[in-house]
Amino acid sequence: MSTRRISTFLIFIVFIIYISLGLPDSIMGSAWPAIRQTYSYPVDMIGILGAIQLGFSFSSTLVYPKLARHWTLDKFIIFSTILTVVGLIALGAGKTFWPMFISCVLLGFGQGSVDIAINDFSAKYFSNSLMNFLHGFYGIGVMASSFIMTFSMQGNNKWQLGVWIITLSQILILMLCFATRNRFKEKAESHTKEHSIKEQKLNFKYFILPLFYFFYAIELIIGRFYSSFAVEHFHWSMATGAAITSFYWAGLTIGRFLTGFTARFMSSRTIIYVHCVILLIGGGLGFIPLVAIQYLSGILLGIGLAPLYPMGMKKAYDLYDASIAQRIISFNIAFATIGMFLLPIPLGWMFEVWGFSLYPTIILAFILLLSLLLAFIYRKKTVK
After folding, report:
1. I need a labelling partner for 199 at 20 to 30 A (CA). Which of 61, 79, 143, 262 fits?
2. Please, which residues have CB within 8 angstroms of residue 9's CB and are 6 or more apart in sequence?
3. Is residue 259 predicted with pLDDT exceeding 90?
């Protein structure tokens, strides 16, 4: 269906719901130094908790098709948002490991469910332009929560205050979802057509793009560890560490909106190469122990990463015919999930053992690897 059949008000509601998807995502990264003091956790525990949350988020994609046969979309959205609210309450109220574990389970499953439900709805009704703006609004949610955590930790380092503010925001969005539930009264089940495509054996060259997505976990790694790097290595305040992370998420959000406009008059190759240079500059600035420079580094890292994920997905169809591109995109998503699940755990262990002085070197190494992979990918000619 075309966008014309969707009212402006409904588009607004969907954008608000997608902001709610990003609200809990910066809590662990921005407030981790304060959270681990409260729970007496080692540094590397954030990798384990993040893996738990990501694992249950991935599991929601497996449960969704079964629930979608019986539930309308409004029930799915409301149920998933309730899970997210309860997960945030467990995070803010808990003082031991088990409330934290329950929080990761509920947040992972709830956010994953909202993500797939809204993407399913938007794919059926939204234009490509609206889809790009939709993912930009996720960044607004992450950026907003990061600033909320920064504000809450001023002075007394009360990270729980930030969690409660975010929880209240989610409750208000839940009330909005409930009030507008009749606009989502349709089966959530997605209708996919069976295609009889002759399976072609994929050789190594087809996995270069999925390999890029595996290492694209750098986006999550920066969000998770940037605050801890500022606090543990430079010995700055927790509020400063959270603020630097906020600037990173702000750069990512702004960069995604800007790319939507620059793509009208710049080629995808030019955009990718320019943003790789921005990434390299941002990574290099990470070694300089000045607060202002770290703010700048965070912004540049966010802007540099902004177009890589969405434009990489599009590149599969530029390089290969439809039958192969569909399979590669499925590998892209799988490799990205595996990278975000696996890489933070050993990195957390490394930072625990050898300290956060390794952080800027590791980030720069990831940036160089991503840049080399992109240079190889974008030198290829498009299919006829």
Report:
1. 61
2. none
3. no
CA distance 287 to 129: 37
Q: What is the pLDDT of residues 131-149, one digit of tens each?
A: 667 777 888 888 888 888 8
Is residue 324 within 8 A of residue 202, CB to CB? The reply is yes
Residue 36 has pLDDT above 60, yes or no: yes
Query: How far apart (Å, rounded) are the C-alpha atoms in residues 301 and 295?
Result: 10
d(CA 359, CA 291): 16
Alpha helices in the chain (DSSP H): 8-22, 27-39, 45-68, 73-93, 97-125, 128-152, 159-179, 208-215, 218-232, 238-262, 268-285, 291-305, 308-319, 322-342, 344-354, 359-378
Quickly count: other Cβ atoms within 10 Å of residue 349's Cβ.
Answer: 15
pLDDT digits (tens, 9 = 90+) for 299-349: 999 999 988 887 787 787 778 776 677 677 767 777 887 888 889 889 989
Domains defined along the chain, listed by start: 1-187 (1.20.1250.20), 204-384 (1.20.1250.20)
